[in-house]
Amino acid sequence: MRTVYGLAALAGLAASRPSPEPLPLEARAVAVVDQETGFTFSETKAAATLSSNIVFRIATPANVPAGQPYDIVLQVIAPSALGWVGLAWGGSMIRNPLTVSYPNGAKPTVSSRWATAHSPPTTYTGATLTPLTNGNKSNGTHWQFTVKCTGCTTYTGSSGQVRIDPNSSRRFGFACANAKVSNPSSSSSSIPVHDVYNYITHDFPAGANSNFAALLQRNGVSGGGADTGNTTFV
Ligand code: HEM
């Protein structure tokens, strides 16, 4: 009798539970000033394993005009054990810019990719990745890259034109693998499938830089235009 009562109570609980909704983690606005490049980045850590993180940092121009495309600076720090890491700007693998990188001796290789299916992504020319003169390196424990991206925040996805609002938080997908890529010096190297994929929610405003173009220049990259940020239009 007690058992029956218990089951009935459990059934009642189950019936009254709200239907499962995806609950993205709240974006934590963490601003990090990178002394080496001078950029203020918004930082999100993604668990690669139970005991190691990939650090994703994005710097944006402050005061991007409404509706306009804009460049960003992406900085990623990855544990040396990883063969490659990737960021999916649209939050899933398919039909959005994928920024993939892998260690390559002193300076990692960064590669722009696109997937139309859950199969190896190919080169994506809609996003241009330009390494900064600083912030691309590796040591015994980690590798790090820092690139300007033109085209990572505006693209044509499965449901049409997408523009990531620089005043918002955004859910990204990320992925990584232990296995090394076959040709690490080539940005079009084939890459082995991921061991891990998951999601992060990234807060953009914490990485706003009022002197974005000047900082790009300090790091050897032209961004043109005023410091208001809309440095390159795609
Ligand atoms: C190297 C070749 C790759 C293969 C063969 C591959 C294959 C797959 C497959 C089969 C799934 C579905 C897994 C499941 O349903 O359990 C998946 C999911 C995913 N992959 Fe990949 N992948 C590759 C590269 C990448 C890259 C470079 C990224 C960059 C970030 C990525 C990001 C993701 C993400 C975020 C998901 C989960 C969301 C989704 O299903 O779209 N993948 N992948």
Automatic annotation (TrEMBL):
Residues 33-213 form the Cellobiose dehydrogenase-like cytochrome domain. Gene3D superfamilies: Cellobiose dehydrogenase, cytochrome domain (2.60.40.1210). InterPro entries: Cellobiose_DH-like_cyt. It holds the Pfam family CDH-cyt. This is CBD9-like protein.
